[in-house]
Fold this protein.
Amino acid sequence: MSQEIKTIKLEMFAGLASVNCYLVRTGNEFVLIDTGTSKTRSKLEKNLQEAGCKPENLNLILITHGDSDHIGNCAYLQDKYGAKIAMHQKDSGMAEHGDMLWNRKSNIISRIIMPFMGLNKSERFTPDFFVVDGYNLTEYGFDARIIHIPGHSSGSIGILTKEGDLFCGDLFSNTKKPAINSIMPDEKAANDSIEKLRKFNINNVYPGHGNPFLWNLFT
């Protein structure tokens, strides 16, 4: 069954920055990738409703990594929609402690700027299950697999569909041009992740920030 991808761009800081969530539709069922910050909740929910996404047809919420601008609405959606939430176990402490700096390599941006901007904390929640490298998502109506791509965080994952669409979280961004995300606490792990991705058949990249882009524009 064909999959339709809806980009939900959620503005932060009075339009100075934004974060992407992606709603994937297969028939009458949905999978949501990332959830934005709690301050963007009303816009996220409006987009879900307009797409026809309801508690009874939201099969799964996938979290690419544990940053607060990606998990900020998980607790709310878990309660209201009853959908299962999945992420990599290495980032689960960020969710369970509500702290994106939990057990994480840090730099000046993460140590100082993120707390100043109020991005280090989020509502706590417990993931329903963990995914690992190679995990197949077809049981949730989503013809895709998980690729573990650490670098931005130790538990960062990509979701690669059968059609070659890669949801990469914050490994890449495309605010001006396709590039490795500027916030990369573990650059060696990130470079290893990129080399790993070169082995796959990727057509389009859907980043956590900025516009989707063709994989060959980066490679």
